Amino acid sequence: ADLKRAVDEMLAPLGWAPENDKPFHAHLTLGRVKHSNQLIQLPWGERLAPRPMPVDAIYLIQSQLRPDGPVYTIRHKAPLAKPAAPQPQ
After folding, report:
1. Contact in structure between 29 and 43 (CB atoms under 8 Å)
2. Are strands 57-64 and 71-79 parallel, antiparallel or unpaired?
3. How far apart are CA 77 and CA 79, in angstroms?
4. Per-residue confidence at 37, pLDDT binned at 50, 70, 90?
5. Any idea of the CA torsion for 9, 1, 74, 51, to the nearest 10 degrees?
6. What sign has the CA pseudo-torsion 74, 20, 57, 28?
7. Longest dimension (CA), the chain
């Protein structure tokens, strides 16, 4: 939510209206290929500093790029279990 707010604040002076009509769902696009003959090698060896982020499920989402905009379809949802509460000893 803080990220969305920061992006909205930076885009407002450029005339970009925030999308408040739907909830914000952070996501990470690992890769997108329009045509299989355009595959390239990516520098996956680079390291990023870890940052905490709560995750309750992992989704496999297909994006189909169309002239009128992308269409997203959830192909699989894998709910993540919450850690069990510590048992008294």
Report:
1. no
2. antiparallel
3. 6
4. low
5. 110
6. positive
7. 61
Which tokens go with 78? 């894998």
CA-CA distances (angstroms) from residue 70 to 64, 67, 84?
5, 8, 39
This model's pTM is above 0.85: no
E-assigned strand segments in the chain: 57-64, 71-79
Q: Which of 25, 84, 19, 24 is nearest to 59 (CA)?
A: 25
**Helix, strand or coil for residue 54?**
coil
Q: How is 12-35 classified by DSSP, letter by letter?
A: GGGTPPP--SS-----------SS
Give the closest residue to 52 by CA, choosing from 23, 31, 26.
Answer: 26
Percentage of residues of the chain with pLDDT beyond 90 = 1
List pLDDT tens digits, range 49-84: 667 778 888 888 888 888 998 889 998 888 887 766
